[in-house]
């Protein structure tokens, strides 16, 4: 796979992590487990383990549920933002390892994508709810579908 394609997928991974922090890593774990991503012998080979797939999937589902509750903090707060950058970057690192591309540039691309996804996703959701008077739960569910569908679309490119 060419470097520009991997870089574009890294940016998309970051955007998705900015929307839902656990969704992209869960998809990467599934892709590694299913043999779509080749992480064998790398520092990220643990991502393809059965236990990791189950744990990442459970965390992703829990995030999808808890995102709808009023007591979850804003995705734009420093701790959440840093975590989103980290999960997007981890996902991009797996892409780069699998395709033999530069990990550093992939991680940087994902970090930029995570910033776009975090702040862009927040603004889009807020404006749709406020300006269009759409129910927040409906907008959140659409955002969930975009994140899950996008994550599996990205990993299916490998």
* Structure classification: mainly alpha
The Rg value, from CA coordinates, equals 15 Å
Query: What order do the SSEs take from the amino end to the carboxyl end, as H and E?
Result: HHHHHH
What is the total domain count?
A: 1
Count of β-strands: 0
Distance between the termini: 8 Å
Basic shape:
globular
Largest sheet: none
- Number of H- or I-type helical stretches: 6
Helix content: over 70%
Explain what you see.
The protein is mainly α and 158 residues long. It has one domain. Helices cover 73% and strands 0% of the residues. The protein has six helices and no strands. α2 packs parallel to α6. The protein is globular. The protein starts with a helix and ends with a helix.
Task: Write a short abstract of this structure.
The protein is an all-alpha fold and 158 residues long. The protein is built from six helices and no strands.
Element layout with pairings:
Blueprint: H1 3-19, H2 23-33, H3 50-66, H4 78-99, H5 103-131, H6 136-155
Helix pairs in contact: 1-4, 1-5, 1-6, 2-3, 2-6, 4-5, 5-6
What brief labels describe this structure?
158 residues; mainly alpha; 73% helix
């Amino acid at each position: 796979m060419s470097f520009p394609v991997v870089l574009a997928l890294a940016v998309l991974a970051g955007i998705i992590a900015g929307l839902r922090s656990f969704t992209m890593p869960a998809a990467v774990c599934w892709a590694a487990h299913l043999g779509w991503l080749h992480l064998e012998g790398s520092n990220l080979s643990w991502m393809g383990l059965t236990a990791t797939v189950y744990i990442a999937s459970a965390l992703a589902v829990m995030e999808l549920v808890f995102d709808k509750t009023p007591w979850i903090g804003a995705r734009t707060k420093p701790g959440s933002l840093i975590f989103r950058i980290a999960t997007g970057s981890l996902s991009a690192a797996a892409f780069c390892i699998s395709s033999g591309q530069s990990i550093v540039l992939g991680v940087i691309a994902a970090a930029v994508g995570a910033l776009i996804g975090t702040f862009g996703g927040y603004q889009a959701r807020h404006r749709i709810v406020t300006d269009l008077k759409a129910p927040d739960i409906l907008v959140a569910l659409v955002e969930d579908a975009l994140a899950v569908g996008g994550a599996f679309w990205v990993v299916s490119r490998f």
